[in-house]
Amino acid sequence: MSSDMTQYLAVFLDEVGEQIQKLEEGILALERDHHDREVLHSLFRAAHTIKGSSAAMGFERMSRLTHGMEEVLDRLRKGEASVTVEVVDLLLACLDALKAMKEEVIVHGQEITDPSELIARLERQGCRDVPASAGSLSTPPGRSDQAKGILLNEYERRILRQAALHGVEPYIVTVRVVPGCPMKGVRAFMVTRALEELGEVVGSRPSAEELEKEQFDETFSLIVLSHEDPDRLRNTVASILDIAAVDVAPWKEEVSQDEEGSPTSETRISQEPRGPSRAPEGAQRVNQTVRVDVERLDELMNLVGELVIDRIRLTRINKELAGRFNHDRLIDELMETSRHIGRITNELQAQIMKARMLPIDQLFSRFPRMVRDLARQAGKQVEFLMEGRETELDRTVIEQISDPLIHLLRNAVDHGIETPEERLKAGKPAKGVIRLRASHEENSIVIIVEDDGRGIDLDRVKAKALALGLVSEEQLERMSDQEITELVFLPGFSTAERTSDVSGRGVGMDIVRNNIQAIGGSVRIRTQRGTGTRVILKLPLTLAIMRALLVGVGEGTYALPLGSVQEIIRTRPEEVHFINQQAVILLRQEVLPILSLAGLLGLDGGQLPDGDLLCVVAISGDSKLGLVVDRLIGEQEVVIKSLGSYLGDVPGISGATILGDGRVGLILDVGRLIWMAADSRGRERRADRGIPHRTASLQPSEVVPYRVTEEPGEREEVGYAR
Amino acid sequence: MPGKVLVVDDATFMRAMIKDILTANGYEVVGEATNGVEALVRYEELRPDLVTMDITMPEMDGVTAVKQLMSRYPDAKIIMVSAMGQQALVVDAIQAGAKDFVVKPFDVNRFLEAVRRAMG
Which CATH class for the B4-119 domain? Predict the structure, then answer.
């Protein structure tokens, strides 16, 4: 690579990364359908692109390898050779080599992997004879049905009518670009621009927007008003590069057959032979986009957050004013204005949220290959299905769920799906199914990882939990199957007897749960012996704004994420019982420990107030805790602000927000609070900054005694297994 | 009709290639520039018949350079040399007065055709 090319390196690597992704998706698609010609074309293009740019950058090995791939793919797409499992494996091997080379370029500035052997294999593949039945050779893409006419809208018709009154000739200019014309959208723009110098372009088919987005094959039409003669128009357009043919004809109006009788304002224009072929239904839309620095979006979100806060304050002031001066016209007006601002702010917030959203496919697209490789290594047959890839969620959420999802999928392959023999013995098809589904559910996103494997062995979970001293026999007896299943979420837990090299890398189900809870989500497991396991992740749409319950303790106001609030109850003093000095109440036959929030936060000694108790039942995972508060303030949208690094990690507090009256409210970290409450030494530990954050989210002490986790290094294999 | 050309591109590789193509076809490459600012300076100094202009360049990008050039020299003839996916920028450049564009990796004949038309 010459020194002057270094500045292209980043661009080059980016592009190679994209193309590698395309290759990967394409090869896997090819594995499913050996005859998908579209895929072959796109694979060919990807290989071709890498070949060209790597050659330009001087990465000769990469270029040689992609050249070999291109040759093979070219023969495949022309039907001169057919796709076999062998070919797919070879292409995947090439893909791996490309990935390695890309990494080597990043680290060492040059490729190290020697592609010679692969190239030799590609060449052998390329020479192989075509089976006689190779079948349909590439036929030129069929011209889609040509529209018989062009429908004009009311606006266009009016202009044309107007023009007719002034004796200006309308023409229809039909233009065809050369096949494979690069940036044909820009060519269309140049044609429009050239014609606009000679007259007025009234309309186009497809629409200007579709032209810009290149949603046309090779032909498009423009309706032009001009005093110039047709030849002049034709020659002007023909002088533009990449224009294959131009046709200029006067148009005549003709009422469309279908529209007749209906009070439509549309008119059909008779069409010259070479009509515009409309972009086929479902054709890929090339959206025009602007790249925006993510930080800028975050900054915008922050500003909107400020607006939300002001809006809330405005509403509050308004209410107060309305209380003070009844039915003042100005106050009514103010009310109306602030309501309007409210609506606009909501809309603004929604739009920016949308801009921060990414389709989850960004993450999902990595998985098919991963699952395939894992299954191969484990000697299992797996069909991997994904649904809802287009589901959008906040990019920060996407970043946070990557590791948990990888872990869940690994578990599903390693521990969930049985070997083909086992499956056949159990009367199941040899091939297991793993499903990954994403969907919207009200204000959250639900992701489900599901397998039809052997399910979790509850007896082994029990045995393991006992052996680890996580639960006692009596406790186990009291626990439901669901509760036993969820023991796998305890830190240090694993039933794996045998570890594959992919699971058991220290990311266990406890970490999965902690990661998901850290972003305000929840994890549930449903499992049935012999039938399969389903893990359900429920995630917030965004991490920037949340709905919260505001409560008052002493002078302060605290926000509880609404997702962590189960209910609010009022308890009479005589209903409070004590077990081992722990105050509890019975809530629907269930023992619920209760604690004063002030005490938990170290604001006072923790004694419960006299009289009726106001108790918020907070929930995290399966753990519940009754938090006794002084006041309920209400439900509100709060903008999450970080506490800032100088405050660091304050136990039980996950952030701050600005309240309607301008004061700061603290956002409670419910998982952590429950952990603190469950820890019998919670009060001493609070002062200790050395507490590992979110080491565990625990059942209340009544259900499962807390076990102090070992140092991470000492922790044993923590993948859950059946 | 041969003429004097100023080649603007930040990649030596591209400049060398464009220069070779043009020289081989009877054009005279009178100068090269590696960014928009340099392009303005060299244009003023050399008054070429045609400029080939890369889009993505340090200091000043090609589109800005076209705008500045056209405001000072409305007769300037510029061809954009674009990478794939830069439609919007090419449209900007043409709106600013660029005569034509080619997309990298380009076909030599198409490039020459664009040069010929732009000069004609």
Answer: alpha beta
Beta bridge partners of A617: A567, A626
As for the ipTM of the complex, it is 0.88
Q: State the count of interchain CB pairs (< 8 A) between A and B.
A: 50
Cβ–Cβ below 8 Å for B12 and A8: no
Contact B110 A242 (CB under 8 A): yes
Annotated active-site residue in A48, A103, A212, A272: A48
Lookup result for tokens 């000492």: A714
In degrees, to the nearest 5, what angle opens at C-alpha A583 toward C-alphas A581 and A585?
140
Give the HSE-up count for residue A696: Cα atoms under 13 Å, Cβ half-sphere.
27
Interface of A with B in 1-20 (CB under 8 A): 2, 4-5, 7-8, 11
User: Cis omega (within 30 of 0) on the bond before A712?
Assistant: no
How many CB atoms within 10 Å of residue A64?
Answer: 19
What are the chain A neighbours of B113 within 8 Å (beta carbons)?
A: 241
DSSP A415: I
Q: Which residues of A touch B117 (CB under 8 A)?
A: 239, 241
Nearest chain A CA: its distance from B11 CA (Å): 6
Q: Between the CA of residue A311 and those of A336, A452, A637, what are the distances in Å?
A: 12, 50, 11
In order, the DSSP letters of A87-143 are HHHHHHHHHHHHHHHHHHHHHHSS--S--HHHHHHHHHHHHSPPPGGG--PPPPPPP
**For chain B, which residues make up each domain, given as ranges?**
4-119
At A494-537, the pLDDT tens digits run: 544 444 433 433 347 877 887 787 777 888 888 888 889 999 99
Which residues of chain A have a CB within 8 Å of the CB of B91? Answer: 186, 189, 212
Q: What is the DSSP annotation of A50-83?
A: HHHHHHHHT-HHHHHHHHHHHHHHHHHHTTSS--
Q: What is the 3-state secondary structure (H, E, C) of A580-631?
A: CCEEEEEECCEEEEEEEHHHHCCCCCCCCCCCCEEEEEEEECCEEEEEEECE
Judge whether residue B104 has pLDDT over 80. Answer: yes
- A351-406 per-position pLDDT tens digit: 877 777 788 888 888 888 888 888 888 889 999 999 988 888 887 788 888 888 98
Mutation target for B interface from A241, A286, A287, A288: give the one with most B CBs within 10 A.
Answer: A241
CA distance A412 to A424: 18
Is the distance from CB of B35 to CB of B10 less than 8 angstroms?
yes
pLDDT tens digits, A154-185: 666 667 776 776 677 788 899 999 888 888 88
- Select from A30, A49, A50 the least CA-distant residue to A38: A30
Give dist(CA A19, CA A645) in Å, integer. 40
DSSP result, A231-245: HHHHHHHHTSTTEEE
Q: Please indicate whether residue A327 is annotated as part of the active site.
A: no
- Of the partner residues A52, A183, A240, the one whose CB lies closest to the CB of residue B87: A183
Told to judge if A411 belongs to the known catalytic residues of this protein, a careful annotator would answer yes
Which of A174, A236, A226 has the alpha carbon at shortest distance from A201?
Answer: A226
Contact flag A183-B100 (C-beta cutoff 8 Å): no
A580 belongs to the catalytic site: no
Give the neighbor-by-neighbor strand order of the sheet with A253-254.
Answer: A149-152, A267-270, A253-254
> Does residue B111 belong to the interface with chain A, where contact is any CB pair within 8 Å?
no
Cis status, amide bond into A651, omega within 30 of 0: no
Question: Cβ separation of A189 and B113 shorter than 8 Å?
Answer: no
Q: Enter the pTM of the model.
A: 0.43
Burial of A487 (0-12, 13-18, 19+ CB in 10 A): buried
DSSP 8-state assignment for residue A216: B
B1 has pLDDT over 70: no
Instruction: Tell me the C-alpha distance between A129 and A698, whole Å.
Output: 64
Select the residue of A5, A189, A241 nearest B11 (Cβ to Cβ). Answer: A5
Task: Yes or no: say if A607 and A599 are a contact pair by the CB < 8 Å rule.
Answer: yes
